[in-house]
Amino acid sequence: MKRAGERVLKYLLARQKRAARLEAFGRALDAGLLEHDPIGGDDRSGAIWNLDPDASEMFCGDVERDRKVISGLLAKTSREEHSSPEEELNEPWAQDQERNESPETLARRSHSAKSSPCHATARKAASGTGTGLREHVLSLVAGCAAPPKVTEVTMALLLTRAVDQSGHALRRLLAILRSKTAIIALSIPVRDFERNFGRLLEDGQVMPFYVSLDPIADGRSLSGRYQPVADSRRRKSFFCLSGAQLKGYDDEELRDVVSKKILTAHKPLIICDETGRALPTRLAAVADMVVTGNGIDKSLIGDVLSSCFNIPTDHPSQLMDELGFDPEHLGIDDLAIAMRPGRSLDEIVSVLSTLDAENAAHAQADDEDGQGGAHARMRRKWARIGSQDPGKKSGSFDVIEPTRFEMASKSAEPVETRSAETSSADRNHLFVENLAGYGEAQKWALDLKLDLKAFRNEDVAWADLSTRLLLSGPPGTGKTTFARALGNTLQIPLVATSVARWLERSLLGDVLTAMRATFEYAESHSPCILFIDEIDNIGSRGNVSGDFRDDYWASLVNRLLELLDGAAKTEGVIIVGATNRPEKIDRALLRSGRLEKHIVIQPPDTKALVGIIAHHLGGDLNAVMRRIGTQTGLERANG
User: Fold this and answer.
1) Which of 108, 260, 303, 368 has the most CB atoms around its CB within 10 Å?
2) How far is residue 417's CA from residue 432's CA, in Å, rounded to a whole number?
3) What is the CATH number of domain 150-292?
């Protein structure tokens, strides 16, 4: 490791130890051992930790004894934080036998439960050694800090190796970090890197300060949050951009992002990409520093095990060589799952090998998807339509199965299979082929029907199909009717929902859960149509009033954007949105890959009305027309 890398690693590990100490101090505060005095009235300027006067009698200066006292109290605090209501009911204070005890008895019981005071403490305080006792206790509390975490040590090693590999001098790196408008791009192809890097920034483990991440693109920040962190800590605001967000922008949109966001707001930008793709030329050109790294290998695994579990660095590599295991597909979370306390080196390597093989299989399946493997999988899903239970319904959506029909031997028109009890009203089911007055929407649906057939025959890729549609028009123009007819024509289920149904839950967390449940159902039951009515009710981030409600609606829009992007990656999910007010929809929802096709359904003209009436009258049309003709003749005769 180069000198710059050694210094960066030393610094990052020191930040991690500092965070662990502060966490231990926080537990000691909860346990009543320490006091927390913010500088300047709040935590933004730091704080001073002091020994709680009421706890001083518990310590006498004996290191081993006092360490046991502190460890016991901190462990009890930790247990209380994670206890369930059922566990609390089993605690001594909750038992019935204490209900009849007097307050004096309970007080004596509480006093006897405390650690016995050390009489030397009073002598120390009287002789002016109170400060020494404070330092003694703080040192022991710091010694109870959690050991190094696998994810954090892995991140430190990946960052350090990337700095070395990129060949940047430490002096230049520090100069760029001091800039108020720095643009730094990190490209390290390791799964989970973006999320973990964002959390380290927010926790103050990368910079010598806490960071608030503000995404400049639609969706979540690097750490997975929808809104920048807002707490009592003093934080510096950074723009952030992830690899997944970069993928959703074309060159022109990226130009707008760079010029409008970066150049007008004076704060740094962190670009973090774990996808392994090349950084867009425009961003690479304007970045002050580009840092690139490699994936997780045997050497890095050995360093992590050495730092976290004191296993000699060369032992893991030797074992992996003996087993013929050369990791290529491991992510950061994989290491955290495998490297757990109590496991032997053999067990850890065995788990890593299993996870690496599983990840490799998934990667191979993704490659096959781009080469025709998706078609075979989709054909199997299509074959199961109608033969499987549509799954548990949710209050967030309804699942409408398509009307089944058989194709006539010499016609491509649908011919329905009916039972003897089928009523005349049921004999005229909705199919796009039979709709009147839908114009461009009908053409889009029939083209999609042909494209789906081509997709099943492996003639086209799913990405080449137009499967995202926004229908708009005045109330009563038949947008919902079109969605039901589309399901019948394509012979796939319709998952029908509306923004109003999502919002019935009111609380933000419940609404977001309902949205996610709807999309997850559609993705797990593809092929299907996901129909979202009243989509304009989701709100728009452009209408900012400046009060707390803006965050509520912004969170809904951001979650819908994320869900649409996720559904776009799922082959077999067709999304149709409907609205009476297209001008109220957030523009980001209409970008490429989302609801990119917009069709306006106009009120029916005379020709369309005739077709609609004929559709609903069905076989009774001729009789009605004859009756009308007879009545007209009589009126003329009676002239």
Assistant:
1) 303
2) 17
3) 3.40.50
| Beta pairing, strands 398-400 & 494-498 | antiparallel
Summarised one tens digit per residue, pLDDT across range 150-194 is: 999 999 999 999 999 888 888 888 888 888 888 899 999 999 999
d(CA 270, CA 373): 36
User: Is 328 within 8 Å of 364 (Cβ atoms)?
Assistant: no
Evaluate if residue 359 carries a pLDDT over 80. yes
Angle, alpha carbons 267-175-278 (nearest 5°): 70
In CATH, the architecture of 398-409+427-601 is 3-Layer(aba) Sandwich (3.40)
The closest of 377, 340, 543 to 455, measured between CA atoms, is 377
Q: Quick one: pLDDT band at residue 415, thresholds 50, 70, 90?
A: very low
Given a contact cutoff of 8 angstroms between Cβ atoms, the answer to whether 169 and 8 are in contact is no
By C-alpha distance, which of 22, 121, 21 is closest to 66?
121
Cβ neighbours of residue 538 closer than 8 Å, sequence gap 6 or more: 499, 553, 556, 557, 560, 585, 586, 589
Task: Give kind and range of the element (H or E) at residue 239.
Answer: strand 235-242
Q: How many CB atoms lie within 10 A of CB 318?
A: 13
What residues pair up with 497 in beta bridges, in sequence order?
532
Yes or no: say if 272 and 193 are a contact pair by the CB < 8 Å rule: yes
Domain ranges of the chain: 3-143, 150-292, 298-363, 398-409+427-601, 607-637
Neighbours of 433 (CB within 10 A): 15
Rounded to 10 degrees, the C-alpha dihedral 267/268/269/270 comes to: -140
Q: Assign residue 324 a region: left if phi > 0, alpha if psi is -120 to 50, beta otherwise?
A: left
Query: What are the φ and ψ backbone dihedral angles of 48, each rounded to 5 degrees?
Result: -115, 130
Residues in the chain: 639
| 489, 574 contact by CB (below 8 A) | no
Cβ atoms 184, 288 nearer than 8 A: yes
Strand order in the sheet with 235-242: 210-215, 235-242, 269-273, 183-187, 289-292
Distance CA 432, CA 518 (A): 25
Q: Are the beta carbons of 326 and 320 closer than 8 angstroms?
A: yes
Which pLDDT value is given to residue 566?
A: 79
For 291-311, what is each residue's pLDDT tens digit?
999 999 999 999 999 999 999
- Report strand pairing: 597-600 vs 468-472: parallel
